[in-house]
Amino acid sequence: MGMQIAIGFGVLVVIMLAIPLLLAWSSARRKPRVGRTDGQVVLRMPRGHNLVLGALAFLPFALLSGMSFLITWQPGSEAGGVVLGAVMAVAGLAGGGYFLLQELRGCIRLDDAGLTRIGAFGTRRVAWGEVARIDFNHVNHWFYMTLQGGGRVYVVEGLNGMRDFAEVALARLPQAALAHSPLALEALQELANSP
């Protein structure tokens, strides 16, 4: 039993070290500029980033599911172990599956008319004129645009093409939207002018 505990502990240490290293590797591959393709700028997380997050979402549930199937339950409570294992497996697959879909689909497409946010399950098209204001979270370094009809579109720092986003946003957003937040305007200008 002592060897199994040592192996389990070793696996946990490897996982705990691997996840931050993989996320740092993904961030290091980020491209500040991606350019236009067919009149569009496509912002997306560096390839592999969402797969790391998917593994992070999947592994704890898979571990709990596996343990609930492998341990010996008291007589009469075996069905509870099966239910717990099944629920944990479904939760792990749902969490990991979401990030897998984000890896395959997730992006923000910018063009001269507006932006299209493509998520794991849906798509939202927003014209530049619909943006009532843009704000900047200086702690986490992301922009969020508040729309006239309600709702928000977030543009996070880790996306490929953030300098392209800043240039397009400065050129296409209504001046009133930019005027609402001098901090966002300054951050966009700084980002657009960075090498």
Task: Describe this structure as you would to a colleague.
This protein is an alpha+beta fold. It folds into two domains: 2-26 and 35-105; 108-193, no CATH class. Helix content is 54%, strand content 18%. The protein is built from six helices and seven strands; from the N terminus they run αβααββββββααα. The strands form two sheets. Strands 1-2-3-4 form a four-stranded antiparallel sheet, covered by helices on one side. A three-stranded antiparallel sheet has the order 5-6-7. Helix 1 (2-28) runs antiparallel to helix 2 (49-70), helix 2 (49-70) packs antiparallel against helix 3 (78-105) and helix 4 crosses helix 6 (182-193). It is elongated. The model has no long low-confidence stretch (mean pLDDT 88).
